[in-house]
């Protein structure tokens, strides 16, 4: 038997043990966490739609008319009209021929990679990609190659090098997050797209944190760069972040979507997402598209947060998105600071290894359009008060 208890103890000793806090209220800018009322800067509810009355009502009404669960997998008899309608809406939203809805982003990423890549193929991934994209390659049995973060030149060299090593039947894939979940920066999709095209590799973008937030009408990082389906053939989006519900989708050419329905095991061998979630997402998708003020307000909060935390001497990362990490470095120090903020009634997650590289522990502040400027004032006041306690000689902010 492996020493399970020893490994847990080691985590504790390293200050890396992760505790779950119990949420006793709806998600939102103010929550009850472990019984304590606090301001919340941890959620991915970027557009404040999690608890929107129209979205809630759509879900409640769909539960009354369709029941709570799908009752079966998609290929048996669980593919409801609501899933079908959502897939059409998402295809239209992303400007793709077709879309396929999954129960989670994790499953979508496993599904797309395990179905399309196979033994002998090469999958090139950004070093900071989400864990589900790495796990998808394991499931596919293809070979994983990781390129330095956002470095299209390094990718180009690796693709070139691989040319002599792969057989003519091998496929190559380039896979990247659109917005990096722990750093908040954007992948250079224009350059990655050009390199992938030049080397005949299929580019897949996981835009979990981009949809709803970036681009025209919230059409994500592909739209932010003004790219098309030709540049980025396959996109993955999640529904549990800016859209406020749950699940995910893959959008792309009809042929590949048809292929995924037949071969993506994480799609086939699981109960379909509750149809009421699909019905609620149809409403939140419309709100995300139409209510431009949500993105405008969010942008104003982001600009203010960066300016004022940089002035306090915090180290920012190169992010223009709602994910605004403050680099602390030491894991214990990040945890201590997160606890100190909680003591002041403000919830901010400490992100530590192994989620981020050793020595780069951080406070991951996420802003949402449901936050007010007064909420931000409170966060900034608390960060100012704690700054001296970090012994924060952390100057040289990258605003
Ligand atoms: N991709 C990225 C980039 C993510 O950040 C996440 C979730 N944190 C996922 C995929 C997984 O999505 P889900 O939570 O819907 O499983």
From TrEMBL:
Domain Aminotransferase class I/classII large: 38-383
Keywords recorded for this protein, A-Z: Acyltransferase, Biotin biosynthesis, Pyridoxal phosphate, Transferase
InterPro entries linked to this entry: Aminotrans_II_pyridoxalP_BS, Aminotransferase_I/II_large, AON_synthase_class-II, AONS_Archaea/Proteobacteria, AONS_Proteobacteria, PyrdxlP-dep_Trfase, PyrdxlP-dep_Trfase_major, PyrdxlP-dep_Trfase_small
Gene3D superfamilies recorded: Aspartate Aminotransferase, domain 1 (3.90.1150.10), Type I PLP-dependent aspartate aminotransferase-like (Major domain) (3.40.640.10)
Entry-linked Pfam families: Aminotran_1_2
Names of the cofactor(s): pyridoxal 5'-phosphate
GO molecular function: 8-amino-7-oxononanoate synthase activity; pyridoxal phosphate binding
Subunit structure, as described in the record: Homodimer.
Family matches, as NCBIfam families: bioF (TIGR00858)
Name of the protein in question: 8-amino-7-oxononanoate synthase
